[in-house]
Amino acid sequence: LYRNLLSPDRYEKDLRPTTHHLKPTNVTFGFLLNQIVEMDERNQMLTTRSWLNINWMDQRLVWNYSEWEGIKTIYIPYQRLWKPDIILVNNAIREYHASLVSTDIMVTSNGNVTWLFSALFRSSCPIRECDLKFASWSHDVTEIDLGLNTDKGDLSSYMNNSEFDLLDMIAIKEIVSFPSNVKSKWPTIVIRIKMHRRPLFYVFNHVSRSQERKFITQVDVVGQISEFNLQLT
Question: Which stretches make up the Neurotransmitter-gated ion-channel ligand-binding domain (predicted)?
Fold first, then answer.
């Protein structure tokens, strides 16, 4: 079955799956927040560990399961299949793909394709409310149309952060155009994360830093007194 589906005369991974080249490929987007790793307030950069659930239909990967001993689902290495080139638009670092961890892609007999992958996303954002913006790198809405499977992100596996409380997370679809080409429309998925610093964490940090400054001042004073006594002797 695997060899049959991916035979060169049937499947080419560089070609976008569509029934007609003028029709867009509909891609459904899901976001699972696993952890708020760090909020760099000075540089306004949020680091999150998340999973993306990407889904689309590919008619080239349809088979009659009754002809294949009832097999309805197979898993294919992600390198072998076409995948939408979804990126984090407001990415704050260059090494975007370095942290990606991908599973094999699940394909069902009706051509339904599901791709799960995890990554450390570092996004530029203001404090307390952060938008993670995902879009296709090279395909506008005429070729890839991004949609949401829910207007709420998935928090079922979320791990609490010791510094920040997560207040809310929502998912929004926006259509964006650019001044260089206003005719092209780019579907963008915005994951909006709202959070605030825990009061006790702030107090602890403030007190610790105050004590540290006080200690440094005391050491400095003792040093000056010792130096003065040496000069007298």
Answer: 1-199
CA distance 202 to 199: 5
| pLDDT tens-digit readout, 219-231 | 454 455 455 455 5
Cα separation, 42 vs 45, whole angstroms: 8
Predicted TM-score (pTM) of this structure: 0.81
Q: Does domain 1-197 have CATH number 2.70.170.10?
A: yes
Q: How far apart are CA 50 and CA 122, in angstroms?
A: 11
**Which three-class secondary structure state does DSSP give residue 31?**
strand
- Determine the Cα–Cα distance for residues 47 and 87; give it in Å rounded to an integer: 15
CA distance to 41, 77, 130, 165, 212, per residue, from 197 (Å): 11, 41, 14, 6, 22
**73-101 residues labelled b (16+ CB within 10 A) or e (exposed):** ebebeeeebbbbebebbbbbeeeeeeeee
What is the rounded distance in angstroms from the CA atom of residue 206 to the CA atom of residue 40? Answer: 17
Of 179, 157, 155, give the one whose Cα is nearest residue 167. Answer: 155
**Is the distance from CB of 191 to CB of 52 less than 8 angstroms?**
no
Widest CA span in the chain: 101
**Is residue 201 packed enough to be buried (19+ CB in 10 Å), middle (13-18) or exposed (0-12)?**
middle
